[in-house]
Amino acid sequence: MVSTAHTYKLSAYPRKSLLRDKTEVVFRPMTPADAPALQAFFQRVPAKDRFYLKEDVTSPKIIDRWAKELDYDRALPILAFVGNRVVADGTLHRQRAGARRHIGEIRAVVDPEFRNRGLGTRLFQELLEIAHENDLERVTIELVADEEDAAIKAANWVGFSRVGTMPNFVRDSTGHPHDLVVMEMLMSRWYEWGRQEPEQF
Q1: What's the rounded Cα separation, in Å, for the pair 98 and 168?
Q2: Which domain range does residue 49 map to?
């Protein structure tokens, strides 16, 4: 069941947007009924990309747990749809109490067919808009150098700054090491960047 005591203001959803190629995409928060479409989405994501995610998203049990335990205040998943098909999944994570309650973290995945069309950048913008409207002070994102360079470019485009690099911190499926790039958006800067035209990510 979805938590009902939401910190976030979600009255703007569902929200339509046009990609650079004029494809219409609808953004909205995930609901329990979206589990099958989300499972199908992750099956289309290449295994080498799924390798860097924090859970086994090919497991129906994982997706079913997400659907049953939705808590928007802890982790708000925004899905992008073309028709009934999920084409991107982005999540804004935050702690509701303690020393880090003013900080959010973004994670995002885009369908291979919809990459290089501005969708990833639009998804970042949606999540940052929510963070801004709900008084988060900063948002972070962690990306793998060489493997997620398009996402690093998109994050930089919308205003994230690189604040750290952990050399050889992660390994790919063959055991080859890659740097982990840590990027941060200070929400006080958001409106300097938030209305720009999206890059092709």
Answers
A1: 31
A2: 15-193
Query: pTM of this prediction?
Result: 0.88
Residue 50 located in a structural domain: yes
Q: What is the pLDDT of residues 148-189, one digit of tens each?
A: 998 998 898 888 999 999 999 999 989 999 999 999 999 887
Q: Would residue 23 be called left, alpha or beta, if left means φ above 0 and alpha means ψ between -120 and 50 degrees?
A: beta
First to last CA, the chain: 33
* CATH code (residue 111): 3.40.630.30
Residue 120 lies in a domain: yes
199 occurs within a structural domain = no
Q: What are the Cα distances from residue 122, in Å, to 44, 79, 112, 116, 148?
A: 20, 12, 15, 12, 17
Half-sphere exposure of 59 (CA within 13 A, CB side): 8
